[in-house]
Here is the input.
Amino acid sequence: MALRTLILQPEAEQDVALAYTWYEEQEPGLGEEFLRCVDACVQFIRRNPEMYPIVHESYRRAIVRRFPYVVFYEYSDTIIIIYAVFHCSQNPKKWRGQLP
Here is the structure.
């Protein structure tokens, strides 16, 4: 089976960029490790999109290994859309604001 097309919404890109910057400021190289863990999570979503639970309407949540982040996404037969890469300590209502 071919991998689905991946669309990373601008808000999700900003989530990742802000987290990367914060982790790099805490310890050089930690931001790079964060990016590797997010990428591994996204690649797993691409291979197994049904593995993660539906948490709101048709949106699913995948947990990023090692970091307190989750990825919110939805998918169809040909496409995966990532809406947010969300820090778990934030107000849970905030990620719903990033969904269409």
Residues 28 and 50 are 35 Å apart (CA to CA).
